[in-house]
Design a protein that fits this description.
11 strands, alpha+beta, tt1808, chain A, 24% strand, 3-stranded antiparallel β-sheet
C-alpha cells in the first residue's frame, strides 16, 4: 500500500481523478492510497470469487460480483474502499445513487458479502474496514488471513492462517473463525462446501 499524493481529496474529487483502467486505489481520510497486491493475494481472491460465482449461477441467485466497486463509509465524504470481493444484491442497485456512473455503493443492505484478503497492511482490514462495514450494516464480512499476518488479539497466539467471518446480528458484528479442515459457514452462501485449508492452499 503506497500513498500517492500529499493532497487530500473528497470522494467526489477522487472519483473524478481515478485513472480509468489503470491501477487500484482507495481513499483513506482524503489521502489517495495505491494498492499493490501480490500474485498469491490475487490468486486467493480469484479462487474465492470463482467459487462464489459458481454458487450464484448454480442457484440462480440475484447477486453479482463486480470487477471493481467502491464502498463509501456512512459518515465520511473523504473515504472510499475497494474490497477484494464484493457480492452485491442486484435488487438494491436501482436505489444506489452513485452506482451507474461511479460504481460506488452507499447502502449496506446492497452488499450481501464483502471479502478482504489480508496483506501487510492488516490493520486496515481488522480495524478500519471492520468498523466501517459494521456501521454500514453490511450483512457479512469475511477476512481471509492466509498468511497469519493479523494481530494476535484478532487471530490468537501463536499466529496461524485464519478466516474470520463477521455476521451482522442485532446491530453489531458477531464472528466465528475457521482454520485447517473446518468448513467455512456463510449466511450468504449456506450450501457452499469450502474449507479453510482449501483457501489457504491457494496462497502457497
Amino acid at each position: 500500500m503506497i500513498q500517492t499524493t500529499a493532497k487530500t481529496m473528497s470522494l467526489d474529487e477522487f472519483l473524478d481523478w481515478y485513472p480509468d483502467g489503470y491501477g487500484r486505489f482507495e481513499l483513506h481520510n482524503g489521502v489517495v492510497v495505491e494498492m499493490q497486491p501480490t500474485g498469491t493475494h490475487e490468486r486467493v481472491a480469484g479462487f474465492l470469487a470463482l467459487k462464489l460465482g459458481v454458487e450464484i449461477e448454480r442457484l440462480a441467485l440475484p447477486y453479482l460480483i463486480p470487477r471493481q466497486c467502491i464502498i463509501k463509509p456512512i459518515d465520511s465524504e473523504q473515504s472510499g474502499f475497494i474490497p477484494d470481493i464484493a457480492v452485491l444484491d442486484e435488487r438494491g442497485l436501482d436505489a444506489e445513487p452513485m452506482w451507474r456512473k461511479r460504481s460506488t455503493i452507499t447502502k449496506g443492505e446492497t452488499v450481501r458479502l464483502v471479502i478482504e484478503v489480508v496483506s501487510t497492511n492488516w490493520q486496515d482490514d481488522y480495524l478500519i474496514k471492520l468498523a466501517e462495514y459494521e456501521k454500514l450494516g453490511i450483512s457479512e464480512y469475511l477476512i481471509v488471513d492466509y498468511l497469519g499476518l493479523g494481530g494476535r488479539r484478532y487471530i490468537g497466539n501463536p499466529k496461524q492462517p485464519t478466516i474470520s467471518v463477521y455476521q451482522f446480528i442485532d446491530g453489531e458484528y458477531m464472528f466465528r473463525q475457521y482454520r485447517e479442515s473446518q468448513r467455512i459457514e456463510l449466511r450468504t452462501f449456506p450450501e457452499l462446501k469450502l474449507t479453510a485449508e482449501q483457501v489457504f492452499a491457494q496462497g502457497i
